[in-house]
Amino acid sequence: MYALFDLDGTVHDKTQSLKACAESMHNKFLDSGGDANQFIDEFVKENCIIQPKAKVFENLASKFNIEPDIEANMLKYFDESFHNYSKRFDGVLECMNYLKGEGVKIACVTNGRGFFQRNKIKALGLECFFDVIVTSGELSIKKPDPIIFNAALETLGASSDNSVFIGDNLKADMEPSKKLGMRTIWVNNKSDLKPEFVDYKLSSFSEFRGIWQAITRR
Ligand SMILES: [Mg+2]
After folding, report:
1. What is the CATH number of the domain that holds 150?
2. In 3-state terms, what secondary structure has residue 206?
3. Residue range(s) defining the domain that contains residue 113
4. What pLDDT was estimated at residue 35?
5. Would the keyword Magnesium turn up in this protein's UniProt record (predicted)?
6. What is the DSSP track for 120-185?
7. How far is CA 122 from CA 23, 25, 156, 214, in A?
């Protein structure tokens, strides 16, 4: 069997990482007179919209009256340092060790700039587990395009019917991987929904082993 993981929101706790980075950037770049919580909320919101990072900081600059040279320094700092704030979801390391112990080959298939995603993977301590890393930035193709999934499968030497995709996004991860014939595990602890293209729902990585065993026993 082969396991293909999304990164952000699946193994990387993006929201917590963004909050920690925002707090530090508020202290570093902005007068401490301003409201840090308001900045943190906007920072998280802007970074969760699919848009270039330059646009994120342009929007933050206009909302919080940030001077152009500070805005440029903030963008540079974010690109160079965000990975230092990266946090894993609980249980991810145990899950990766379990899969490696089972002899499973693992890929990471992620939307984002190559250097940025790879820095995060390293900082999260996950680089050693991934046999293959595919980023949309390096391929110039984003999920949900099947091309990026097929590129990962091909590099792994896998076929879709012996592969499992684990991701948090229904449109970008679950629907396209199911269409290609993979088994799907949806990382979600908020929604009661379970669309037909989701085989298993995972609300915490403590459930991973049981789900994997259910899949491989078939
Ligand atoms: Mg994601």
Report:
1. 3.40.50.1000
2. helix
3. 2-13+87-217
4. 84
5. yes
6. HHHHTT-GGG-SEEEEHHHHT--TTSHHHHHHHHHHHT--GGGEEEEES-IIIIIHHHHHTT-EEE
7. 22, 22, 20, 30
Rounded to 5 degrees, what angle do the CA atoms 158, 6, 49 make?
Answer: 145
Does 80 lie in the same domain as 24? yes
Ligand 1 centroid from CA 8, angstroms: 4
Phi, psi of 140 (to 5 degrees): 60, 30
pLDDT value, residue 90 = 98
How many A from CA of 13 to the centre of ligand 1? 10
- Distance in Å, CA 22 to ligand 1 centroid: 20
Q: Does residue 35 share a domain with residue 91?
A: no
Q: Does residue 218 surpass a pLDDT of 80? A: no
